[in-house]
Amino acid sequence: MKKPPLFVLLAAIISCLTTTTPLQADPPTEPILRIEAGMHAAAISRIAIDAENRYLVTASRDKTARVWELATGKLIRTLRPPIGGGDQGNLQAIAISPDGTTIACGGFTGYEWEKSFVIYLFNFQSGLLKSRITGLPGPIFYLIYSKDGKYLAATLGGKSGIRLFRTSDYSLVAEDKDYGGSSFGADFDTSGRLVTTSYDGYTRLYEIRMESLSPLKILAKRKLHRTRQPHRVAFSPDGSKIAVGFIDSTEVNVLSGKDLSHLLSPNTTGVKDGNLKCVTWSTDGRFLYAGKGDPGPFIIRKWSDAGKGGYKDLKASNYGINQILPTKDGGIAFASVGAEFGVFGSDDKRQIYQSSPNADFRRNFKGFLISKDGTTLRFSYEIYGKSPAEFSIANRLLQPKTLNDLAVGLQKPIMSDIRLNITDWEFKTNPKIDGRELNLNKHDGSRCLAISPDSKAFLIGGYWHLYLFDWKGERKWSVPIPGMASAVNISGNGNLVLAALGDGTIRWYRMSDGKELLAFLPHKDRKRWVLWTSSGYYDCSEGAEELIGWHVNQGKEKEAAFYPVARFFEQFYRPELITEVARTVDTDKTVLARLGEKERVNMETAIKLPPKLTFVSPRSGEVLDREDITIKLMAEDMGGGVDEIRLFHNGKATFEETRGLKLIPGGKFIEKAFSVQMVEGLNLFTALAFSKERIESHPAEMTLTFRGVSKESDLHLILIGINRYKNPALNLNYAEPDALSIRDFFASAQVKRLFGRVYSYNLINEKATKDNFKKLFAEVKEKARLQDTVLFYMGGHGDIVGSEWFFIPHDVVTPEVEESVQKGGISMKEITETVKGFRAQKVFIVIDSCKSGRIVTAMSGFRGYEDRKVLIQLARSTGTYILSASTDQQFASEVKELGHGVLTYVMLEGLKGKAGEKKVTVEGLIHYVKNRLPELTEKYRGAPQWPVSWGTGMDFPLVVY
Questions:
Q1: Which of 326, 356, 386 is the last residue of a domain?
Q2: Beta strand pairing status for 700-706 and 623-624?
Q3: Which of 86, 223, 247, 392 is the most interior residue, by most CB within 10 Å?
């Protein structure tokens, strides 16, 4: 058997929603972690286009609706109805009013708390939820407005039929409940007639007569085939013909627009399997289109002469087509089950194509490899195992691979065993052991299999669940999954189950009880990734913090809020917690309890919303003649209080905060003023507010232009290098020469073309005391001007006490004693406040230091690792660029052959021109270091060293040639 038909799977969902889901009065208040990568993360169920063809709207099973600019494919906004667990919130239908003012969407929506299904009506301009249509007995599978915008028709699941609403007040005006199956298609013609399809086999044609006692009059009702189930339906532009596609056939029918009599069946030669379920006409009626469903190839067939002529197949998608609609210019728009949509022009060329940013694990369960402990894995970004890559939790290393690369230490899933006779498991609904059917949930099916290394258990990956069975075939547990399972595997030590899922994630489950522990999302750009625990504690690569976030329901009559995890950095960025979860196979809550910590935010209750922040004065866009100005900001308390307001000028934290938070009478609004000095030309100001729980607001932005004279920029080098410590056991080899080599480079003639003057502040060896640090910081704070550049280099030892990182000065002799480090060390908090205090907007910090707790290893030629969170927090809070020698799981290498620490050696290579032809910017240099440093360390040390970087300021040049 093939995979369960769509209507069977949908029946299963309806059954679950109507019989087993616990009911409640309101949507859940607990925040729900969702994927958000600027595109749908699951199948696009439906699309709609406004009458003027300005906008395309999409509805998805990822529980969002999105508005796109039709001409460009640019995302305008995302709409978020209230959602719940499982399929609660899965959107199956969408429509946009002909005038483009209202967007209606629905699906498996609202039942969890309404006891009936709901259609949500959004204001197009604001994106706010303005109204709801409640009381529907079945899920909403299709929505469509009449051409004049007076009516909205909804087709429903089960045997619930159709409903017709008057758009002046969205009241119910007509209904037909006499349906024997779900309805997935409807269309209006220009005269207001309505045609629908149903899985009871019938196509129905209606006339709307509001003055009649029966406003929805059936003109014709026809079952074209004894068993076939019509899916989509479309009127020809003049209403004389109706096209019908079927879910269970490759046939397409063209019917009479008067009585539904059969007129013709277009040529479907070559379309052997699956269906041509989606149909539409060109706007002039000359061409008929039908879209291919699973299995591929996923073409859209275009017939000439209204379906009577020859055909042309358009290669549209990598997935089954879910809907096709005509565009005014003679083309079509389409959407697929693979979270793709596109637009063809009248010349049959694909003009726009938007695809899912998620990895596609399908058709490659043999290539889903894992290490014995389950913490390293190989997967593929593309279907059929194309573009393989490996990821390691231990060092957070994501590496591209080729199909010929050996997978050392990684094991394929075991899919056969002479001791276990498991059959019918590949894409079937009735997997068996020794001929006995396994106990899967009703209407689920089997897609993939993995047998435990000891042959005592096996795992079935299904459409909706994972199942673990013992060797006898007794089900030990099942857990729901957010996307169909494409591949599964069991770790060699028997502790972990891994599943590659249809939502683009790979997830770790505990073998003993099926508890989800971790999830990993690799972006298709092959660079960004996010790794998180079941409670939302996360780690990520640079720039990936926006890929997931918290969906927060705000009641059943209001649109939901959404906050990227970046807004929760201070509470939820916990890379060390993820490492411990992977090591111990315990949940994050158990690990936190063992560490004596409570959860950072109580996720059992709603997140208290962060403040809403606005600029009060000046007005954005103003052109000013004065250099010194005062900027006023106002934060509105949205329930979480106001703890702090930050202002960034061209990406850098402002030099001074002249006044504290000022409470405006009434208690809901907080005002803060900043005195700033502008630079010549365009000035970008960005502000953030923090709640009492340290949740960040959405950023507020303002631009101002200063008409002044451009000033020459100077370079300030803060160079700290300690080879000789007061305690000789701490001595290093290259910290001093590394610092001085940077000084020498920037003192050379080739750099002075860019900077007027180069100031060098050196603390080398015995001079690097805490008192001298403070004096140096004060001097730079006084000298560095707004237009200047600061490069801050630190080479030496570092250590962590509690959660605070400290640089170890020359005169700290017992770094193994925490009190000694706290008293004599330079804390990252002090460094952060110092950098904040610099007026200079262009700051680059390089940290090449080790932990004194690693003295033995350090003396053998390595430097220790920094706490990566400390570095990132410094960059985020100050608006600077940070580059660190190694990841928090590695040591920074010193190589005798190079005469330097490898980081400094590579930096100098880049500065001398290898990081840019005509100029080297800080971003270009970081990019060069991140690619070159692993190559050199592998050459000299036998293993690559991976630097850490983070940047939140604006890019700026360091060298011009």
A1: 356
A2: parallel
A3: 247
